[in-house]
Design brief:
Blueprint: E1 6-10, H1 24-34, E2 38-44, E3 58-61, E4 64-69, E5 72-77, H2 88-102, E6 114-118, H3 124-135, E7 138-143, H4 149-154, H5 162-177, E8 180-183, H6 188-195, E9 202-204, E10 229-234, H7 243-251, E11 259-264, H8 270-276, E12 283-287, H9 291-299, E13 303-307, H10 321-329, E14 333-336, H11 344-347, E15 350-353, H12 358-370, H13 373-390, H14 393-405
């Protein structure tokens, strides 16, 4: 029999139910509790996924509120808000959260046996290490986005930049001090062993399908009278989403080709792109939709699409939540992606084309359009069956507990 564990899951961006962001922290904690363990989530209200969502809660201590979601005690720091993802305010928000954790009345929480620090924010591993030492708990460093590599790969900042240098030290410190590193991407081990001075234990627990997503099969597709072949993107409309590749390919099709490209979501570039393509007949930016309505809309599409840039960060694999959502929705997928392959190829539910290769992407769209409806439906069915078999949080929590049980 497993010894009872008390698990703290600390993540600035852990979202509450009803948010557009992933519910990984809450989903895992809920399953840990179902297994008879104790679990809490410590998060922040300053979250670009839920910036307009004010979760209910009562005052717990100065700077923190308390609420229960799905039976999980959740302690939320009232961190300063920010309006754009690429901004100095977001960095200040990180720092404010870390300062807040210094004043968390930790002894009022169940004494932890394990502390899972989930990035971003990368800086939280410093507080995680402090708390793990204080309570003699085991430290798990969970990586969902490889910083500072993601920052240097997508900006002009060099490795010698002071901010990058500091984050690099924090990354190395976290790998070195953790009892185990858990990555949501499948090839993180190469990154960890290239950064750390010693061989670190690295495990993989991928992104999962939360309880809201798991009911997608019961959500009907929205009826449409549009006769065109619909190629749809659902996700953030921002700097890191490589939308230009998709847009350049979309513009290469003429109206008589019978293809409509739709981009649903919000982000820093939304208003700019809405204005640019306002009168374009084959490219539409409807903006964000409520979660259920978005899923209905994506289910009525012919193929779902996304792209990444051609950078080093993808050598370690992807852990994009949109891939989980796309597969749960049950439609074929085209990914303009050159990194370490996973999920789509494992489920045989779509196609990879090289990142930034517009000719290859254009041809693949034509090929999928030429498929029969039955062929595309079969691909979508394989996607959904695979994700329900491998990525429910019930299974992921079991896998996580097995990791925590190892010495």
């Amino acid at each position: 029999m497993q010894a009872k564990k008390s698990i703290w899951y600390i993540n600035k961006y852990a979202s509450p139910p009803g948010a557009n962001g992933g519910l990984r922290g809450l989903s895992l904690a809920s399953e840990f509790i179902q297994h008879g363990h104790s679990a809490v989530v410590i998060n922040s209200r300053s979250n670009h996924y839920v910036i307009q969502h004010e979760a209910p809660g009562r005052r717990f201590s100065p700077g923190f509120t308390y609420a229960e979601h799905w039976g999980v005690p959740t302690y939320t720091h009232q961190t300063i808000r920010y309006s754009t993802t690429a901004s100095a305010q977001r960095i200040l928000s990180w720092l404010h959260f870390e300062i807040g954790l210094l004043f968390l009345p930790a002894r009022r929480l169940p004494r932890p046996t394990h502390i899972i620090v989930s990035s971003l924010s990368l800086l939280t591993v410093l507080n995680g290490y402090r708390l793990a030492r204080k309570f003699r708990a085991r430290l798990v460093f969970e990586i969902r986005d490889i910083w500072p590599l993601s920052l240097t790969a997508r900006t002009s900042l060099s490795k010698n930049n002071p901010v990058i240098a500091i984050l690099s030290l924090v990354e190395k410190f976290g790998y070195g001090k953790a009892d185990v590193v858990v990555g949501t991407m499948p090839n993180l081990v190469e990154r960890v062993h290239s950064v750390a001075d010693r061989k670190i234990r690295v495990e993989t627990i991928g992104q999962g399908i939360d309880r809201e997503l798991s009911t997608i099969a019961e959500i009907p597709a929205l009826p449409t009278s549009n006769p065109r072949f619909r190629v749809t993107y659902g996700g953030s409309i921002g700097r890191a989403n490589a939308l230009q590749t998709l847009l350049d390919v979309a513009e290469s099709f003429a109206p008589h080709d019978g293809i409509l490209f739709e981009f649903y979501g919000k982000g820093d570039y939304l208003s700019e792109l809405q204005k640019k393509y306002e009168y374009h007949s084959t490219i539409k930016f409807p903006g964000p939709l409520p979660r259920v309505e978005l899923f209905q809309t994506l289910r009525s599409s012919d193929v779902l699409i996304f792209a990444t840039d051609n950078s080093e960060v993808w050598n370690y694999g992807q852990s994009l939540h949109k891939v989980v959502e796309y597969m749960a929705i049950g439609r074929p997928i085209i990914a303009a992606y050159s990194g370490f392959p996973s999920m789509i190829n494992e489920a045989d539910c779509g196609f990879f084309v090289p990142a930034e290769d517009k000719d290859a992407l254009r041809q693949r769209i034509i090929d999928v359009k030429a498929m029969t409806i039955e062929e595309r439906s079969a691909m979508g069915d394989r996607a959904r069956k695979w994700i329900l078999k491998h990525r429910t949080y019930k299974k992921l929590a079991n896998d996580y507990l097995a990791i925590l049980n190892r010495p």
